[in-house]
């Protein structure tokens, strides 16, 4: 990606736009929260100094928006390659001064890289094991309760059963009708958010969300934000920059087991799932992911 960007002289265009607005690099750093040496590298078309391909694209978009240049016009028709979010996040961190800086990876071991690449799969396996444990516990507990009820059941005479059979049948039908109505009117059931600041991810579980389609709506507000939506099988449903007032709605297929919504500029986005507003992050940050696991 770096070579193709160099040929377009993106750095020269950004620098010229900055100077036309009488802005210094320090001004742009305050606006974008991008470290000064990365901004200098971008203006010099030296993209190899940035922590990875994902940050090349994201930093250029942030810089462009800060100087009122449309990112898509600057980047042209090039479609950036899909970068693993765990791989990208492992190469950068946010300091106390709210500036994004890259970690030095010269001493990273092959084992650490492998764990980072597969961390999402490991978390998914752990969640599945926990779910199986809960199902086993509930099944065992309910079985014991049923046995106790059977042992203490009061016997009734045949005549009593005959007299109440019609009433019981009617009551059963009403209960079944009520149950069906309740299911058809059930709303989105979200778990409490699990926030992982190290991975810059908020994780939700949607109860009774498996084998169903879901509508995800993203609205831009205050400023521009880059949004990417993909399912657990790496299918990309949306990859677009939204400005204030713009919105996009995507449908998650019923075959999906999970889906992730990735943001650049969290404060400039509003997220709803099946009509319910969803908290993206408790902190103001540049990059953030919202992961939804669809449960039975």
Automatic annotation (TrEMBL):
Ranges of residues in domain Cytoskeleton protein RodZ-like C-terminal: 223-284
Biased composition (Low complexity): 158-187
Keyword annotations of the record: Membrane, Transmembrane, Transmembrane helix
Transmembrane segments: 122-139
Domain of life: Bacteria
Family matches, as CDD domains: HTH_XRE
Residue numbers spanned by region Disordered: 158-192
Classification via InterPro entries: Bact_Cytoskel_RodZ, Cro/C1-type_HTH, Lambda_DNA-bd_dom_sf, RodZ-like_C
SUPFAM superfamilies named in the record: lambda repressor-like DNA-binding domains
MF term (GO), any: DNA binding
Record-linked Pfam families: HTH_25 (PF13413), RodZ_C (PF13464)
Record-given protein name: Cytoskeleton protein RodZ-like C-terminal domain-containing protein
């Amino acid at each position: 990606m770096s070579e193709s960007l160099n040929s377009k002289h993106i750095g020269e265009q950004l620098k010229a736009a900055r100077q036309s607005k009488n802005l210094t690099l320090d001004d742009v750093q305050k606006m974008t929260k991008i470290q000064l040496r990365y901004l200098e590298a971008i203006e010099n078309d030296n993209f190899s100094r940035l922590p990875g391909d994902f940050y090349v694209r994201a930093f250029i978009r942030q810089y462009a928006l800060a100087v009122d240049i449309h990112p898509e016009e600057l980047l042209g028709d090039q479609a950036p390659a899909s970068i693993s979010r765990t791989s990208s996040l492992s190469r950068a961190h946010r300091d106390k001064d709210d500036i994004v800086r890259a970690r030095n990876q010269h001493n990273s071991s092959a084992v650490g890289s492998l764990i980072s690449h597969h961390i999402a799969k490991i978390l998914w396996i752990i969640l599945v094991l926990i779910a199986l444990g809960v199902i086993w516990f509930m099944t065992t507990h309910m079985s014991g309760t049923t046995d106790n009820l059977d042992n203490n059941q009061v016997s009734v005479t045949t005549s009593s059963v005959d007299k109440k059979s019609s009433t019981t049948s009617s009551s059963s039908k009403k209960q079944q009708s009520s149950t069906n109505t309740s299911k058809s009117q059930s709303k989105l059931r979200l778990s409490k958010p699990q926030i992982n600041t190290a991975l810059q991810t908020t994780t939700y579980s949607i109860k009774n969300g498996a084998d169903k389609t879901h509508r995800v709506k993203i609205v831009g507000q205050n400023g521009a934000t880059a949004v990417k939506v993909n399912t657990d099988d790496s299918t990309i449903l949306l990859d677009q920059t939204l400005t204030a007032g713009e919105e996009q709605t995507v449908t998650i297929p019923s075959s999906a087991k999970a889906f992730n919504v990735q943001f650049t500029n969290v404060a400039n986005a509003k997220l709803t799932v099946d009509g319910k507003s969803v908290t993206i992050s408790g902190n103001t940050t540049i990059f953030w992911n919202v992961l939804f696991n669809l449960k039975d």
